[in-house]
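User: I've been trying to design a sequence by hand for this structure and keep getting stuck. Would you show me what you'd pick, starting by listing the structure so we're on the same page?

Assistant: Good idea, let's start from the same input. This is the structure you sent:
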């Protein structure tokens, strides 16, 4: 707001109301040339009404609340505001509708969190924006260091981006994700005011896989499970000759993650009465 409305930075300050006997209403304006921002606070624990206050605006001027743009007021015939109801512990900032400017988009949350450590090498990177974005402008301006390829998935509102690395993040690495300031909003030409950057550190490798709860089911199939890093991808293999090199074992399927970090696989029933051995590999 201070960047979009210079009156907030360098405008003349004019106190318009204060309740001097405790929590309550405080109102002022900041005026620079023809631009004026009208601000009212209510620090009380219940709704208070601010009575009409003088403004520089001519009668009939529509003012918009910057904090809730669906709210507006109209300046009366004496260039004053109407009564303004202000809920408890809230504020309102009004500016002439003709002066209103859309906010620049920004990233308000990122996962993994900035400077997080011990992050799975399979973790997606999720960016939440303040408004729907021009998806192509974001993807063109998106980079990682070290460089890692991946796919982009947007939610229906186009305000949340999920980047899934094609393979996995490097191990024991500091990953920096960056979105260039050229990334712009979907409905306006407004772009990021400055580049967005965040970083996190990955674990070194996937923990040892130890198969547990090995069970033979009624139909002869074999089920086993294990715990590991959430989001990891594992493949089950089998053989009848346990001494064979792992490269000669037969792939029997992809292990399912039945809940975060909990994996399970059910192998088909053995044929010809042979004894089968199973192992799991990553990735």
């Amino acid at each position: 707001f201070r960047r979009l409305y210079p009156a907030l930075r360098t405008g003349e300050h004019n106190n318009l109301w204060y309740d001097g006997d405790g929590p309550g209403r405080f109102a002022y304006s900041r005026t620079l040339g023809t631009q004026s921002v009208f601000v009212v606070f209510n620090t009380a624990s219940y709704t208070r009404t601010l009575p009409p206050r003088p403004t520089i605006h001519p009668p009939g001027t529509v003012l918009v609340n910057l904090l809730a743009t669906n709210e507006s007021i109209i300046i009366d015939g004496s260039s004053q505001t109407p009564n303004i109801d202000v809920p408890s512990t809230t504020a309102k900032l009004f500016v002439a509708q003709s002066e209103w400017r859309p906010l620049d988009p920004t990233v308000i949350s990122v996962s993994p969190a900035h400077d997080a450590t011990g992050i799975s090498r399979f973790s997606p990177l999720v960016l939440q924006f303040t408004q729907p974005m021009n998806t192509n402008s974001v993807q063109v301006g998106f980079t990682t260091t070290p460089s890692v390829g991946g796919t982009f998935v947007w939610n229906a509102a186009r305000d949340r981006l999920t980047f899934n690395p094609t393979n996995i993040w490097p191990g024991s690495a500091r990953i920096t994700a960056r979105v260039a300031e050229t990334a712009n909003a979907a409905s306006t030409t407004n772009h990021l005011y400055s580049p967005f950057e965040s970083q996190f550190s990955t674990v070194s490798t996937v923990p040892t896989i130890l198969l547990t709860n090995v069970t033979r089911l009624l139909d002869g199939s074999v089920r086993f499970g294990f715990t590991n890093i959430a989001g990891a991808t594992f493949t089950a293999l089998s053989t009848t000759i346990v001494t064979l090199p792992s490269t000669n074992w037969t792939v029997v399927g992809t292990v399912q993650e039945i809940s975060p970090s909990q994996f399970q696989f059910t192998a088909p029933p053995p044929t010809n009465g042979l004894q089968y051995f199973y192992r799991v590999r990553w990735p």
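That's my pick for every position. To get oriented when you compare it with your attempt: The longest helix spans residues 135-140. The radius of gyration is 30 Å.
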